[in-house]
Amino acid sequence: MATPLSDTPLSPLKTVAVVGLGTMGTGIAEVLAKAGREVVGIDISEAATAQAVAALESSTARAVERGRLTEDERADILARVRTSTDLRAAADADLVIEVAPESYEIKQQIFRELDGIVRPETILATGTNALSVTRLAADSARPERVLGLHFFNPAPAMRLVEVVSSVLTAPQAVSAVTNLALDLGKEPVAVGDRPGFVADGLLFGYLNQAAAMYEAKYASREDIDAAMRLGCGLPMGPLALLDLIGIDTARRVLDAMYAESRDRLHAPAPILKQLSEAGLTGRKSGRGFYTYEAPGSATVVRDALTPLDGAALTPGRTVRSVGVAGSGTMASGIVEVFAKAGYEVVLAARSAEKAQAAKARIGKSLSRSVDKGRMTAEAAAQTLDRITAAGSYDAFADVDLAVEAVAEDLEVKQQLFATLDKVCKPGAVLATTTSSLPVVACARATSRPQDVIGMHFFNPAPAMKLVEVVRTVLTADDVHATVREVCGTIRKHAVDCGDRAGFIVNALLFPYLNNAIKMVQEHYATLDDIDAAMKLGGGYPMGPFELLDVVGLDVSLAIEKVLHREFRDPGLAPAPLLEHLVAAGCLGRKTGRGFREYARR
Description:
This protein is α/β, with parallel strands linked by helices. The protein has helices spanning 23-34, 46-65, 71-79, 104-115, 133-138, 171-183, 199-215, 221-232, 238-245, 247-261, 270-277, 329-340, 352-371, 377-385, 410-423, 439-443, 477-489, 505-521, 527-538, 544-551, 553-567, 576-583; strands at residues 15-19, 38-42, 81-84, 95-98, 123-126, 146-151, 160-165, 187-192, 291-292, 300-301, 321-325, 344-348, 387-390, 401-404, 429-432, 452-457, 466-471, 493-498. It is elongated and about 85 Å long.
C-alpha cells in the first residue's frame, strides 16, 4: 500500500519534469533551470524537443549579450536541461508539470501513465487554465498529490503563478509548490478549482464582452482597443489581446467557463466561433480581428476594415470659444484642457463664488505644472487669462461649444440642457460629459436635438488622453465632425460609439469589476490575491478593488445598475456585497473605508 502523501516528507523539488514543450512548457523549463532545478523536458514530438532546446539556447544567448548572464552561468543552465520523447524520463522527478493541449482526454492519459512511472510522493501539477483540476485529480491513483500550477505567458517574464487546490489536494503539496514558486521569483496566489481561476476567470469574461461589442458593430476594433488602453491604462486592447492569446484558445476557455457558470457573460460570442472555424485564430495564423504581416508576426497591416487616414468627414462648425458648466473636479479639468489648447473658455457655475473657486483650483493645477517644468510661468498665466468665471449660464450666449460637467443625475442634466437651449446661440454645439446616462434624453430636453452630442472625458481630464464621442440617432453629421476636430485640437484621442449605457469603457470595465466582487463574496479568493493576480497576470495598472475604492463604491454601484437596467442580463446584476458596503456608507477612499480601510487625512 502506498504511503499517503501527507505522511511523506517532501523533497525540495530539485528535479522537475515538464510535459509538453510548446511555448509555455519551454518557458517554464527555462525558469526552472535558471533557478537551479534539474529539468526534464518531455514531448511526444522530436521536433518540439529540438525546438525547445534551440529556444533555450537562443534566450540564454540573448541574456549573455545583455549582461544578465555570464557564459559559465549559461552553460550551467543548459546542462541542467535534458529532453526526451518518452514519459518514463519523468521517473526520478520530484514534481511533474503537465502543459499539454487543453483536452481532458490528453491530460488524463498523461496522468494515468505517470501513475505507473513516478514515485508515490511525486507531485503532479497541471498547467491548465480552463479544465477542472478536481476531475483530473479524481482519475489519478493518488489524487491528493495532484494540483494546478498555472503560469502566465511568457513564463520567464510574468511573475504571477496561480496555485490551484482541489478538495482532494494535500496541504503539504500546496505548500511545496508555493515555496517553489517563491524560489523561482514568482508571486503565487492560492485559488480554488473553477474554470479560469482568478486572472483568466476575470480576463476572459471581459474579452468576450469586447468581442460581442465589436460583433454588434457598436464600435470599430481600433476604437474599442484604444478606449481600453487609454481609458484604463491597459497594455493592450481586448481585441489585439485575443489575437495574441489565440481566438481558438479563448473560445475553448470560455466554453469551459460557461459550462461551469452558465453565466451569459461567459457564453462565447458567436464571432469567436466563426473566426476559429475559419482558421482566423489571431497572430499565429496571420489574421484574426486584425491582419498581420505574416503568421506569428506582431506587425498589423492594413486590411479592408482599416480606417482611412484623414478620411473625408462632413465639414465641422467653427469653434473659437467654449463654455463649461460645472465647478467640480471634472469641470475644472475640462476647462484647463480647453484653455491650454488656446480656446477662450467661460466657466459657469450656480454661483459666482463656486465659479471663482473652480478657477482658483485650475490656477493651482497650472502652478504645479510650472513647478514640474511642464509649462512656463508665462504660458500658465496666459492660460488662466483665457478663463472667465461666471455665476450664470447666461454667460454662454456667445460660445460655439457648451460642455456640461454637472452631477450625474438625469433630471439635473435635462434642466441644464433646457437652459442651454435658451441661452446658447443658434448653431452652438451642446455636449454632455455623462458616463452612464442616455445622451438622447439630454438632447430631447432641447428644441435642437441635432446639436447635442456626448463628450465623455476621463478623470483627471488634463492627464487622460481619451474622449468617447457619443452620437445619438438625432446628432447631425457636422456636429460629430466638429467634436472630432475639437478633440484633435485639445490633443485627445477620440473614439466613436453609440448612445447606450456605459459607452465603450464602462460597459467593459464594470462587469469585470462586478465579477471580481462576486469572487470575494463567494470566498473564492482574497482581495489581495485578486488584485495581485490582475496586476501581475493581466498587466492592469491597479487591481479591481484598488480601482473600486478610488472610483467610489457608490459611483460604481450606480453604473452597475444602469448597465443591468439597459442590457437586462442577470450576470450584470450588482453584487450584493457592493450594495451592502454602499448601504453601510463604505464608499472607498473618500470615506476612509471601502473594500479596504484608509488612514484619515
